[in-house]
Design a protein that fits this description.
The protein is mainly α and 123 residues long. Helix content is 77%, strand content 0%.
């Protein structure tokens, strides 16, 4: 004959197993959601990847955008500390001065000859 406590122990053991399985399945579901599974990427993994890509892109593009912005500024805009990114007027004389100083058109002609002639010969 079963004692009264044995039936409760069996029922309690089953409930404990059910709670453990529920907790484990919930934990596995959270892991799959964050880290993904074989078939699907997890949101945590995607977030890390996108944050890294954005950070690397920012590190590479910030200096380029900064220099392009500064290249269109006049000397007055460069000396004015209140102007950071957008110049008060577009100042293209910097590019004209650089083209004159580097003898741009003559250098471009020489580069086309040096690169173009061997290319045409190899075709």
């Amino acid at each position: 004959m079963k004692q009264r406590g044995e039936g409760n122990k069996g029922r309690q053991l089953q409930q404990n197993k059910a709670v453990t399985l529920y907790k484990r399945s919930k934990k596995d579901a959270i892991k799959r959601f964050l880290f993904g599974s074989k078939d699907k990427e997890g949101i945590g993994k995607q977030t890390v990847v996108y944050v890294l890509l954005f950070s690397i892109g920012f590190v590479y593009l910030y200096p380029l955008l900064y220099m392009i912005s500064k290249s269109f500024m006049s000397v007055d805009d460069l000396l004015d500390t209140s102007i950071n990114w957008l110049p008060s007027t577009l100042y293209v004389a910097n590019y004209e001065n650089a083209a004159k100083a580097m003898d741009f058109w003559n250098t471009l002609k020489d580069s086309i000859i040096v690169a173009g002639v061997p290319t045409l010969i190899n075709m």
